[in-house]
Write a structure and sequence with these properties.
globular; alpha/beta; 2 domains; seven-stranded mixed β-sheet; two-stranded parallel ribbon
């Protein structure tokens, strides 16, 4: 029998999350609940970040665990659950901040539910206007509002910020075939549906306010598209890009898109890595890249 309380679990890779942990400690202490915060480093290559994160263990009821090998976010989240002691698990990504002082209370008010997804919001900051990731996330922000998420609770599940009962999680762990980040949470949402675990969406976001540079985001996008392609049979119906690609039935159209990508992808990359990246070009690039991976 697990002890009542909240285990806050944060996977990290090459990112310092000391300030996030400090912010959470203040909120958890104010909520007057038993808690712990566990941060696990998934084989970071940046030794300075690892050293900085050691300070997490100096915070009350907090632990920082390092793992030598990078095993991916799916395996790291599963590992974090095994290290926890309380009956509710709150998973939060390492590169966010908490915009609301009642963040913990909002989750505690839903502790009777199996799975609760709080969502994300995007900072409004002019200094990020030339950042591709910022433009992409900002444009998609309204599509991931709580009302839209409630309409498709399983397809809109994301692992950035969610609470789950320990017993539920142990019955439906992240699939460790997903070695790299990308789409492991989408497949987790599908598993929750298959196992009939209800997902509740509430308005309790974490905030994204830092974004990788354009070349790094483009590289990450390509990695995610390779993951989507590798698991396309598992993810059908849960990816808009996959649905779009599957809807192109004429082989000549697919060939033309792939040919366009082969001819112009370097120009597209220059635009996407520039100070004024185009989201239209980004959509074309993603589709062309994905179709070029083959069927």
């Amino acid at each position: 029998m697990r002890k009542p309380g909240l285990s806050v679990l944060i996977p990290t890779y090459n990112h310092c999350c000391v300030s996030l942990v400090k912010q959470l400690v203040v909120l958890l202490q104010a909520a007057d609940t038993d808690y712990e915060i566990i941060v696990t480093d998934d084989g970071s290559t940046d030794t300075d970040t690892i050293v900085e994160n050691q300070a997490i263990s100096q915070q009350p009821r907090c632990r920082f665990i390092t793992r030598e090998q990078n095993s991916g976010s799916a395996a790291t989240r599963n590992f974090l659950a095994t290290q926890s002691q309380y009956d509710h698990l709150l998973f939060i990504d390492c590169d966010v901040t908490i915009p609301n002082n009642d963040f913990i209370q909002r989750y505690l008010a839903t502790e009777d539910f199996c799975v609760v997804n709080g969502g994300i919001c995007i900072t409004t900051d002019a200094r990020w206007e030339g950042n591709l990731r910022y433009r992409y996330e900002k444009q998609a922000e309204m599509a991931h509002s709580v009302i839209r998420r409630q309409q498709n609770p399983y397809k809109e599940f994301r692992s950035t910020n969610f609470m789950i009962k320990y017993e539920t999680f142990m019955d439906c762990r992240f699939d460790e075939r997903f070695k790299r980040s990308g789409y492991e949470d989408v497949f987790f949402g599908k598993q929750l549906k298959q196992r009939d675990f209800p997902v509740t969406h509430i308005d309790n976001p974490v905030m994204m306010n830092t974004f990788e540079d354009n070349p790094a985001f483009l590289h990450k996008t390509e990695q995610n598209l390779r993951t989507l392609h590798a698991f396309r049979n598992d993810l059908r119906g849960y990816s808009k890009l996959l649905t779009l690609a599957d809807g192109i039935h004429l082989s000549v159209v697919r060939w033309l898109i792939c040919r366009f990508h082969a001819l112009f992808n370097k120009i597209e990359r220059r635009i996407l890595c520039s100070a004024q990246p185009s989201l239209t070009v980004f959509k074309l690039y993603r589709l062309g890249y994905f179709l070029s991976l083959g069927s």
